[in-house]
Amino acid sequence: MTAPKILVFAGSAREGSLNKQLAKLAAKRIEALGGQATFIDLKAYPCPLFDEDIEAQGMPENVLKLREILADHQALLIASPEYNGFITPLLKNTLDWLSRPYGDTPGLKLFAGKWAALVAASPGGLGGIRALPLGQQLLANLSLTVLPQPLSLPKASSAFSEGGELINEAVGQRLDTLCQRLVDVLAVTHR
Ligand SMILES: Cc1cc2nc3c(=O)[nH]c(=O)nc-3n(C[C@H](O)[C@H](O)[C@H](O)COP(=O)(O)O)c2cc1C
């Protein structure tokens, strides 16, 4: 069996997204900790707002590309801002499309048996913390196993060094701990 891989993306498409920055750092840390990570930018895979009429006309090209990528990974690490205390529409829409049955693949099949970890960044003081339990619940509904103790990064506009590392060492350590847990659990479950 090939080494398990972790798919890393952000729930924001914005150029200069703090969550993309956090996601890229998480991917780098996963690699440094002995795992394999793939960072993708959802801006490169624009999908229409989910509508069963659109789906009935055929799965959009970018959904098919994302399905292929997801099928090739055994875990997700998602960095997402909160919008009004909730997960972003981009994240919900992407996960909704990926949850659909297609061809011989039943709904949720692409998520079943996989692991997930969540992180959140915000320029505000709460660090996106209110949406983390909601994101965890959504991922669990999709039949992923979600690691506890997600990381939130408040005041994220000033949290990164020029090299893209976290300036606060304790927060960097917490990110490493979460990434290490994901790497370790995959090493045990995908031997
Ligand atoms: C519609 C909307 C709602 C927002 N609601 C919240 C919120 O509830 N809590 C928060 O901390 N920031 C909120 N923000 C600010 C975002 O955290 C901020 O724009 C952040 O930089 C977005 O993440 P990104 O940098 O990864 O794009 C909101 C932004 C938008 C556009």
Automatic annotation (TrEMBL):
GO terms for cellular component: cytosol. GO terms for molecular function: FMN binding; oxidoreductase activity. It comes from the Bacteria. Keywords: Flavoprotein, FMN. Pfam families: FMN_red. SUPFAM superfamilies: Flavoproteins (SSF52218). Residues 4-154 form the NADPH-dependent FMN reductase-like domain. Its cofactor is FMN. This is FMN reductase.
